[in-house]
Amino acid sequence: MPTSPPPRSPLNLTVLALLFEGPMHQYRMRKLITDRGKGAVVNIRSSNSIQQTVQRLERDGRIEAVQTEQVGGRPARTVYRLTSAGRADLFDAMHNALTTPAREYPLFPAALSFMAIHSPAEVARMLQQRRTELHRIVEEHKRGVQDAPATLPPVFLIENDYTICMTQAEIDWVDRTLAALDSGELTWNTRELIERAVRYEHDTGDGPR
Fold first, then answer.
1. Which candidate, 25, 35, 144, 182, has a CA 20 to 30 Å from the CA of 47?
2. Tens digit of pLDDT for each residue in 19-58?
3. Which H/E stretch holds residue 146?
4. Sign of CA dihedral 85, 88, 91, 93
5. Measuring CA to CA, how many Å separate 31 from each of 110, 172, 176, 180?
6. Strands, DSSP E only, in the chain?
7. What is the CB neighbour count within 10 angstroms for residue 160?
8. Residue 16's closest CA among 88, 90, 97?
9. What is the pTM of this model?
């Protein structure tokens, strides 16, 4: 009997979407994720990540085992299929993900909010390093698009296009920030900022109690 919807995650969504195509075992799921280049949008680096997700979805009634396959001397493989509850969850998750921007609390903006603990020169060096990595990511995804078969429908490459556009936008932001740091338009003194924060707490009565 289905329980409450399982926590939504990229891997949950991926497993449900693959089973929407048809029944399959975990090894085929991993192969399809790898072959289709979905490793860029879903984390399967842990060897048991798919297994744990499948077990959780089965426990929650979103998928069910239909048969066990054994080929030659290979270990037996359980084939799973989508349940009606799993299908409903898949479509609900897709609707929410595509229509509603999620507040995901990524690490980079959090680090930016405290970057003044470093000097402007140190921040500039770190952002230059980030810029190099961002360009590498753009080129990697462009190669993925260029190397795709000409007969592959563009819809199967849409996440590459999205990643290229979003990463390029971040590069543009990094370039503007580096220019502001270089010109002195964006600058600070860490010790002075800390002293100002202490004075503000004292003046407003918002200090530690």
1. 144
2. 999 999 999 999 999 988 888 889 988 878 999 999 999 9
3. helix 120-147
4. negative
5. 35, 35, 41, 46
6. 24-25, 63-69, 77-82
7. 21
8. 90
9. 0.84
